[in-house]
Write a structure and sequence with these properties.
The chain has 191 residues and is mainly beta. The chain contains 1 helix and 11 strands, in the order αβββββββββββ.
Length: 191
């Protein structure tokens, strides 16, 4: 049975309701559709990415036998180029001691400190995870010690041209290749 308000006499099928436009803030909190957005620095409004389309979740990183690689370098990217996803778990610094062993942060194995304690992330949730190759204009400010790339252990390590730390790069050979844009330091805008 149909309601007479659903009918459009004289035109056959009812028109679908207009699709609401997503506000840029809706993109980072997960309520927007998958339209492309680009991310800008909240301090200076400079674009930090090309247009990206949202994935429903952060994918699992591709398998990479880094120990057999001919040359040191990053693993294949977790997020395909042209896309982004929202990290729902804590990621990056600070790392705090815990009695329960488990992954220190998503897509990262267990970590311990020099005193035999397991470490877990108490970092922010809601980071925007992108393929590092989709970032624009960022420079490495500092990197936690690693053999051939940056780790998220020391916190945000990518700086906008204006001097604001905006992201955490993970690029060491034995870790997933990801860039986590800080939801507190970037915002989504329509291209």
């Amino acid at each position: 049975m149909s309601d007479e308000h659903d009918q459009d006499p004289g035109h056959g099928e009812p028109e679908p309701p207009p699709r609401p436009a997503a506000a840029p803030g809706d993109v980072a909190d997960g309520t927007a559709a998958s339209d492309a957005v680009l991310f800008v620095c909240t301090t200076c409004e400079v674009p930090l990415t090309e247009p990206l389309t949202r994935l429903p979740e952060v994918p699992e990183p591709p398998f990479f036998a880094w120990w057999d690689a001919d040359e040191p370098g990053p693993s294949p990217a977790t997020v395909p180029s042209g896309h982004y996803a929202i990290e729902t778990e804590p990621y990056g610094a600070p790392l705090v001691a815990t009695a329960i062993p488990g992954p220190a942060m998503p897509r990262r194995g267990t970590m311990g400190n020099g005193r035999g304690q397991w470490l877990v992330s108490q970092g922010p949730r809601g980071n925007i995870v992108i393929n590092p190759d989709d970032a624009r204009g960022l420079t490495l400010q500092h990197a936690s010690s690693a053999c051939c790339g940056a780790t998220p252990d020391g916190g945000m390590n990518q700086m906008c041209a204006c001097g604001t730390l905006v992201a955490t790069l993970c690029s060491d050979c034995c870790l997933p290749y990801e860039l986590h844009l800080s939801a507190d330091h970037v915002r989504a805008v329509r291209p």
